């Protein structure tokens, strides 16, 4: 009599953007995929109210990163996704904001493809749009800014990372993710390359959350007002549209 062999269920990975913080800024699709999870691999900036939506029986794996302190290297995160998917589990890789905007989701997709693992990427509200909107700052405006550029703040110290002359040109909004710590350097470079020192600029910390704080004034003045770097997420927005925000203070 032939033995019956159990057919192992194929694992699957959902790379899910949780948005900038509040659970009601998640998409319906993100919530649906999260509720399917058997394993959740989540970042530092996922709020408790979003974590509370994880099924109670799902395994939770924290892989948060902070400046200078990566609790789990990206290569190990990739390996975790592969391991649990190959074990037949439904895995949710839960990220703050959007997985494909400075979220390293593209690297995780490449790893899954290389191992032949099925996946889906679920977009989320990225910090730039969520935080700017919460502060009343349009990222584009027909009369003030015809373009918007997103930049990782941690690269600002590298001499050849950015074309500062291009970034100093008018008619654009510049958004630096995690740029608070390097704001003095960012401001010096932009002003040295021709941007007016009184160009409207803002810091939005804990954007969209109950603890949100906004500092908005001219760029050179903002450097003196900026809070010290801390564990809260902070976004720097520089451009003429900042003057439309409800917290903007004219010099």
TrEMBL record:
Pfam family membership, one: TP_methylase
Residue ranges of every copy of the Tetrapyrrole methylase domain listed in the record: 13-222
GO biological process, one term: cobalamin biosynthetic process
Enzyme type, top EC level: transferase
InterPro entries in the record: 4pyrrol_Mease (IPR000878), 4pyrrol_Methylase_sf (IPR035996), 4pyrrole_Mease_sub1 (IPR014777), 4pyrrole_Mease_sub2 (IPR014776), CobA/CysG_C (IPR006366), Siro_Cobalamin_biosynth (IPR050161), Uropor_MeTrfase_CS (IPR003043)
Pathway note: Cofactor biosynthesis; adenosylcobalamin biosynthesis; precorrin-2 from uroporphyrinogen III: step 1/1; Porphyrin-containing compound metabolism; siroheme biosynthesis; precorrin-2 from uroporphyrinogen III: step 1/1
UniProt GO MF annotations: uroporphyrin-III C-methyltransferase activity
Known EC number: 2.1.1.107
Keyword Transcription regulation: no
Keywords assigned: Cobalamin biosynthesis, Methyltransferase, Porphyrin biosynthesis, S-adenosyl-L-methionine, Transferase
Family from the record: Belongs to the precorrin methyltransferase family.
Name of the protein in its database record: uroporphyrinogen-III C-methyltransferase
